[in-house]
Write a sequence for this structure.
């Protein structure tokens, strides 16, 4: 019987590596030569760079007329991209924190410029519209027909220029130039021998003046119609004893004539009187009002 060989304890037992294609061999530790490693992660600087570029372009476009609305959109994008890029840089995912902040700042400036340009454009448009309106008014005024002066209405020779009642002592004018005035009536004590006067009655005289400034002779036929303030008719008195001096004859152009007509005032007659009279037959009647003097 043969004895087993002796075991040596002087050399440590070193495991032998299996060939690479051996399926049961142990896997070498990472980092050893000949083994693949993990590549380092690339920084995400795209948003910060994009914010800087977009903000720069937007700030330039903001000064171009009618393109400020594009600058406003670019400004919003620059602010959003810049803030996102700045947040990524704080997390260590990007390395261009300064570019991101600069892009966001340029985006804000672009937005402000866009707003300013909106107001500038609105003011410019409003001024242009105002100037256009003024130019249109000047053009219309230049080509418009000159205004026709308002002509005074023509009155016939026998019509009053103003047919409104006037006060005693004022003059009424006719279209042909004739002028008629009724003086304020005055009261007098009637003679009891005058026909038509009774005890308690009062009497007044109405004096009239006609001036013929027309080119034609005037037939003097005026006779006043008198009422009191209550519309009561006042009877005239006739005869020289009552002081009656009526118009008579023809009044030549440029001449003047006066007349006096007495009237009786029964008891209860008011002192307010209304006198209606025409300068001649066919002439319009004028009206005088007032109190007995």
């Amino acid at each position: 019987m043969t004895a087993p060989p002796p075991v040596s304890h002087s050399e440590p037992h070193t495991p032998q590596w299996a060939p690479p294609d051996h399926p049961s061999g142990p896997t070498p530790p990472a980092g050893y030569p000949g083994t693949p490693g993990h590549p380092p992660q690339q920084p995400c600087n795209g948003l910060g760079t994009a914010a800087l570029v977009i903000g720069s372009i937007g700030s330039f476009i903001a000064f171009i007329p009618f393109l400020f609305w594009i600058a406003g959109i670019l400004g919003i994008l620059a602010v959003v991209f810049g803030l996102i890029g700045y947040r990524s840089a704080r997390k260590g995912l990007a390395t261009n924190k300064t570019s991101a902040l600069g892009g966001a700042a340029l985006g804000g400036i672009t937005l402000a410029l866009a707003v300013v340009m909106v107001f500038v454009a609105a003011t410019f448009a409003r001024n242009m519209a105002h100037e256009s309106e003024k130019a249109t008014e000047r053009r219309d005024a230049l080509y418009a027909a000159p205004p026709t002066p308002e002509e005074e209405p023509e009155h016939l020779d026998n019509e009053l220029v103003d047919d409104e009642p006037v006060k005693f002592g004022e003059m009424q004018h006719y279209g042909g130039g004739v002028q008629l005035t009724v003086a304020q009536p005055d009261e007098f004590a009637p003679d009891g021998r005058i026909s038509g006067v009774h005890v308690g009655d009062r009497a007044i005289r109405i004096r009239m003046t006609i001036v013929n400034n027309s080119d034609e002779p005037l037939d003097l036929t005026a006779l006043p119609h008198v009422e009191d303030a209550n519309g009561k008719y006042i009877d005239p008195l006739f005869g020289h004893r009552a002081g009656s001096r009526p118009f008579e004859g023809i009044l030549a152009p440029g001449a003047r004539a006066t007349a006096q007509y007495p009237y009786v005032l029964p008891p209860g007659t008011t002192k307010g009187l209304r006198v209606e009279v025409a300068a001649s037959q066919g002439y319009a009647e004028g009206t005088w009002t007032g109190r007995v003097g």
The mean pLDDT is 81. The longest strand covers residues 202-212. The helical segments are 46-61, 68-90, 97-143. Residues 97-143 form the longest helix (47 residues).
